[in-house]
Design goal:
There is one protein chain. The protein has 345 residues and is of the alpha/beta class. It folds into two domains: 165 residues, 3-Layer(aba) Sandwich (Rossmann fold), CATH 3.40.50; 154 residues, Rossmann fold (3-Layer(aba) Sandwich), CATH 3.40.50. The protein is built from twelve helices and 13 strands. The strands form two sheets. Strands 3-2-1-4-5-6-7 form a seven-stranded parallel β-sheet, with helices on both faces. A six-stranded parallel β-sheet has the order 10-9-8-11-12-13, sandwiched between helices.
């Protein structure tokens, strides 16, 4: 049995869960049994819809140490051999305690402390071993870096969009939540530009808390989608995308959609900056530093992409050649090899 310890809620959104589901599906295809373990039961419907087992701990997601004994008992009773951890709320003590009883694979992009883990995966665009050197890890911990390990959903990376000379559809999302109210703010500014014959497809997550206000903006040219299961089908209809950083940006790149990205959290900054520096996306800035400036940059670049089809084409071609969509499969293979004690991964 392989356990996946992950949370999702209105504070941390759905990104951790979605990438873990991608890995879980790859594990299942390889014959492995998976159980999801979460603090709250609020994601049980999402997990069970995909036919995975689910256990709710009924504790606070941001107090991981309080669950140690309970989780260790679950590991023992469920005969979990490996646990995939995907959480920023883990602590040094928490991981040390688990490490004594189970093999650990940890998905990291913050490098907060020395992690007790057998395998650490950091799929940030420019990640490398140098960022972990200060912790002096032993050879027992194995590292895997870079965008080849981005765990996208299985439908991404196999079919790219058809490039259109004219922009007809713009994709807009901030992921599972929108704590900085970017969706409505961006829509208001784009509406002022009177983008004739251009539709804006807005995707918000399960925990988006301004849906009633957003619905009031819906029109023939503004379409609202919430908590959808067919993200790929919605995305591929678009000629331009506006997105907060994270795995969504990688999904957009994998199918060749020219993307304007912004960061709303520490773990997003390095990745989107690196994408931008390599000419793969346009980076509009960090919302936490200057929201107004970020929105202004977004609107300016939307206009630039609409009027410059050669620039759009360049971004599209560069982005789709960088990400192949097989990261979840690669992580699943790492987990399986670890399970069977194959140390040369």
């Amino acid at each position: 049995m392989i356990g996946i310890r992950v949370d999702a809620n209105d504070k941390i959104a759905m990104g951790h869960l979605m990438r873990c589901l991608s890995i879980a599906k790859s594990l299942r295809k390889k014959g492995e049994e998976v159980v999801f373990i979460s603090s709250e039961s609020n994601i049980k419907d999402v997990v069970c819809k995909e036919n995975f087992n689910f256990i709710a701990l009924n504790n606070r997601y941001d107090d991981k140490e309080s669950e140690i004994e309970q989780l260790l008992e679950i590991i023992r009773l469920s005969k979990i051999e490996i646990i995939l951890l995907d959480s920023y709320e883990v602590t040094e003590l928490y991981m040390q305690k688990l490490y004594t009883s189970v093999k650990i694979v940890y998905i990291d992009d913050l490098n907060l402390f020395k992690y007790s883990a057998d395998v650490i995966v950091n799929y940030t665009y420019n990640a490398n071993s140098s960022i972990y050197e200060k912790w002096k890890y032993s050879n027992e911990t194995q590292f895997y870096f870079g965008i080849k390990y981005i765990p996208l959903r299985s439908e991404f990376g196999f079919e790219c969009i058809d490039f259109n000379d004219e922009v007809s559809n713009i994709f807009l999302t901030t992921g599972g939540t929108d704590n900085y109210d970017m969706i409505i703010s961006i829509l208001k500014q784009l509406r002022k530009k009177e983008l004739h014959n251009i539709n804006i497809n807005v995707v918000v997550g399960k925990f988006y808390n301004k849906i009633d206000e957003l619905r009031k903006m819906e029109s023939d040219s503004i379409r609202i989608y919430q908590n959808i299961s067919n993200m790929y089908e919605i995305m591929k209809q678009n000629d331009i995308a506006i997105s907060a950083g994270g795995t969504t940006v990688a999904e957009l790149c994998s199918i060749g959609i020219p993307t304007i990205a912004f960061s709303i959290a520490d773990n997003q900054m390095e990745g989107v900056k690196a994408y931008s520096e390599d000419g793969i996306i346009i980076y509009a800035g960090d919302v936490r530093e200057n929201k107004g400036e970020v929105i202004s940059n977004i609107v300016h670049n939307v206009e630039k992409l609409i009027t410059n089809d050669s620039y759009r084409s360049e971004l599209s071609l560069k982005s789709m050649t960088k990400i192949d969509g097989k990261g979840a499969v690669r992580i699943a293979e790492l987990i399986i090899k670890l399970k069977y004690n194959q140390k040369s991964l």
